[in-house]
């Protein structure tokens, strides 16, 4: 009789253990993987994804970078941070420009500007592409916008001066080179380029003066012969 009660007690304990096991939460999936099995990969956060894209691009893997950036850009309209999306569009545009896809790059820069409209460099990037497409009015507008947001960057004045030169607005081009020289007074290249502007405008004395200043700043200039020839051709007999 005692043996019967003993077996009954053992049986109740076993049933209780089974019930407890059934009610317990399942172990984590990672804990069930055999030792050495790769864990499931998690998608990077958008912030990390942008940095990974930049790394891929520097490693000469632009298509892989674009693929990752497209995943981040697809999050637009969600709670993804605006600055992160701005950086994604900006990098996407830079890569597209490097791959000689100016139309797509302009679209990307425009989207970046819509997200962060007060960043001067993006206007300058887009303006350079407009200039390469001979869309001079758009280029002038973008370089002017870049100067408005950051008037301390001499390159923006020089870029706009080159567009003015392309449309034969010589006075405006010379004025922009003057602004650039106020910011970088020892930049010899600016004197040389303004000399050619003056030459195109028929302002011979001003052109010769800038060319001579250039040669003074760069005594062994590789284009010294070319500049001296321009001075000789421009100088009156």
Q: What's a concise summary of this model?
A:
This protein is mainly α. The chain has helices at 2-23, 29-32, 46-58, 62-73, 82-98, 102-115, 120-132, 136-149, 154-166, 170-183, 188-200, 204-217, 224-234.
Task: Describe what this molecule looks like in 3D.
The chain is an all-alpha fold. The chain has a domain at 186-237. Helix content is 73%, strand content 0%. The protein has 13 helices and no strands. Helix 3 (46-58) packs parallel to helix 5 (82-98), helix 4 (62-73) runs antiparallel to helix 5 (82-98) and helix 10 (170-183) packs antiparallel against helix 11. The longest helix has 22 residues, at 2-23. The chain is elongated. It starts with a helix and ends with a helix. The model is unreliable at 1-34 (pLDDT under 50).
Map the helices and strands.
Layout: H1 2-23, H2 29-32, H3 46-58, H4 62-73, H5 82-98, H6 102-115, H7 120-132, H8 136-149, H9 154-166, H10 170-183, H11 188-200, H12 204-217, H13 224-234
